[in-house]
Amino acid sequence: MKKNSVRHLTIAALLVAMGIIIPMVMPRIVIGPASFTLASHVPLFLAMFFSPGVAVAVSLGTGFGFFLSATPIIALRALSHLLFALIGAFYLQKYPTIVLTKNKFVLFNGRFQLFNFVIGLIHSAAELAVVSVFYTMGNMPETYYTQGYMYSIFLLMGIGGLIHSLIDYNIAYFVANALSKQFDIPVFSQAKKLEQVKTDILPQEIEPQQ
Length: 210
Description:
The protein is mainly α.
């Protein structure tokens, strides 16, 4: 148990570091006045495949890290990730098999993509709430007010944020599956065990009785 806790703590620390560094080095898609950094959410999404505890540690770690290295609005947006991270991590822990289909990784997995969409809605809604508060207080750059709330906040930050979340979670999904072939990614490991149990039991259920 202690060994597992140390392992998770180490993984959380590495993911926090990645979560702070990635926005500094990865390319950005700029749709004025907003910008979207590719893979900026991937470390937190990966954390959700380990445990709720790791997800909380990474969301808090990146949030407080941004308080030291970025603006308050960016830091608070990062802290708002705690909401979807907790919900998603607990759901994955309870229903791990959504990451696989017939014991196989499939990128166009309907169950996982539905989960991804719901997480994306929570993600974008939480960030939209944070940005809206700053907008109404008049603490946003002038370009946001020039473009107006519906375009610069709701459309770009809300809908754009949802699309950004969907893309990043699919990147994390692909990376986690690749890593799970060499390392223990708890949600993937548990999913494989449960899918294998189904595979072993099903032939016995359909075998005709003598």
